[in-house]
Amino acid sequence: MAGPGYGGYFLGGLASGLESGFNMGMQITKLKWQKEQQKKIDDLNKEMSDVWNSIGQEMITLTNDGYFSADDQLKIQVLTMAAPYQMQSELGKLRGFLSDYSKRDFDRQMEYVKTYVEYAQGLDPKDVDSAYKTLRDTATDPHVLALYEVADKKLKHDVVAEEEKRALDITGKLPTPYKYPYLKEKGMVGEITPIPEAPKAPGITDYTSAANYLSKFKDSPLFLHKVIIFDCFIIFL
Questions:
Q1: Of residues 28 and 45, which shows the higher confidence score?
Q2: For residues 196 and 207, is the Cβ–Cβ distance under 8 A?
Q3: Could you please report the per-residue DSSP string of 184-235?
Q4: Over the stretch 208-223, which tens digit does the pLDDT of each residue have?
């Protein structure tokens, strides 16, 4: 016959065993889900890489055929570097949610990442400007933002230089009276400040005018000589 408290030990052990079994089951479920989702991430990564590699090759072919301008070629360089950075940044968030077993966040991020693949699949390789702007507007990765900052400055500088060159070409064909107003309208020149005329130097025989002329400089630190005026001469001492 069982002693006192035996039933309590039995029930406690049973509850502990059930809890351990439940936790083990949850752990198995978690690992199974993580394994399945990890495969989805790997497949998505490969799919995205293949799509962008294909787009990149088509853009290179068009570049070699002379289809793109210099600005477009710069945008292509940025895209080929920025797109993989941004994609890996988004996949990194997925892996973080996967590790934390945050299923809701994972599913939301997975849908978001899929939009990158769908967009790339429908992208026209000739529409570089649209792709460039779309990635810039959605970029969050620091490397991508830095690439765009440098590229945008370069593109803006080139645009300004081209506009100034065009304005100067037009100015060269305008009549002289119209040149300055046109350049001023384009913001390439400012207001012209009139330069005051220097006092006219008097003749050496006009000692009254000479005295008046020299008196304008008497307080100047550069005027170190004494001046003696005679009837016909001005003598510097």
A1: 45
A2: no
A3: HHTTSS-PPPPPPPPPPPPPTT-HHHHHHHHHTTTT-TT--S-EEE-SS-EE
A4: 555 565 555 555 554 4
